[in-house]
Design goal:
Double-stranded beta-helix, globular, alpha+beta, about 290 residues, ten-stranded mixed beta sheet
């Protein structure tokens, strides 16, 4: 399928050249060019990229031949980095760069695994802001990643379903994996509808890879709701699909997206490096005041 992409550009900031922004879908996803991520960025350029991240939820950069240290340096511009307890490192001297490889998923979920819609570190009291993922070793074809706009999903729900879920809490259970590495952490429940701490937009906050269940509901009723929400999240209308290429990078907001890795490339040892950016927000729902008559 061919897609015609609309091109736009942003005005130069503080004497830097303009970024070129290619919007990929109406509410989610943009490719950014006109920047060299191997070089330090100015505070103004950092702020511009952060604004683009908030606007598009996930932004992509192609043809960026950077190494692990440069990836870490770029990520550090956006916050304190988070070292994940269960992931391996390609370079143990750089613990914030997590090795994301296909064989780990196959080990965890079986040899014929398929992707799961999830958001990183939702099991934490203060989940990470987002992640920067760099392609290291790609199959010749396949291995795409999809992101879904969880605010658009929430807004697209029928009014009665939105009302039903507005005050619910859902479990994020990563304990089995944490126990395997001796990392003691309780199982948490977060609001099913989360208010974004920077733009105030409400969105779904659920991790389908972490045994989600609704607090206070009978198991069968909870299972039915989770299945219904998974159907909504899986609608292409809310998604962007990224075809990886050599030296491509994705930067996404964990607070407004879920993502899904596609395992359609056999036993190829696809490898990526991910850097997580920490954040100090505990997911919560901000109740909007009703207008008075």
């Amino acid at each position: 399928m061919s897609v015609v992409l609309a091109q736009s550009s942003r005005q130069p900031v503080s004497g830097t050249r303009s970024l070129q922004v290619t919007r990929l879908e109406p509410t989610i996803g943009a490719e950014i060019s006109g920047i060299d991520l191997s070089q330090p960025i100015t505070p103004a350029r950092r702020d511009e990229l952060r604004a683009l991240l908030l606007e598009h939820k996930v932004i992509f950069f192609r043809d960026q031949p950077i190494d692990t240290a440069q990836q870490i340096a770029f990520a550090q511009q956006f916050g304190e980095l988070y070292e994940h307890p269960t992931t391996q490192q390609n370079d143990t001297s750089k613990p914030h760069a997590h090795l994301i490889q296909a064989q780990d998923a196959r080990k965890l979920y079986g040899p014929r695994t398929s992707g799961r819609w999830h958001t990183d570190t939702s099991w934490l009291l203060q989940p990470t802001l987002g992640a920067i993922l760099r392609a290291v070793d790609l199959p010749e074809i396949g291995g795409d990643t999809l992101w879904t706009d969880t605010a658009a999903v929430y807004q697209g729900l029928p009014d009665d379903l939105r009302e039903e879920i507005d005050s619910l809490y859902v479990v994020h259970d990563f304990k089995k994996s944490l126990d395997q590495v001796g990392f003691d952490y309780p199982i948490l429940a977060h609001p099913l509808v989360r208010t974004h701490p920077e733009n105030g937009v409400d969105s779904l906050f659920i991790n389908f890879s972490q045994n989600p269940s609704v607090i206070g509901w009978e198991p069968e009723r909870s299972k039915q709701l989770v299945a219904r929400l998974l159907l909504e999240v899986s609608k292409p209308e809310y998604q962007v699909r990224f075809k990886w290429s050599k030296n491509a990078i994705a930067f996404w907001d964990n607070r407004s997206t879920l993502h899904y890795p596609v395992y359609n490339y056999g036993d190829y040892p696809r490898r990526m490096e991910r850097v997580l950016i920490g954040y100090n927000d505990i997911p919560h729902r901000v109740r909007k005041s009703q207008p008075t008559a």
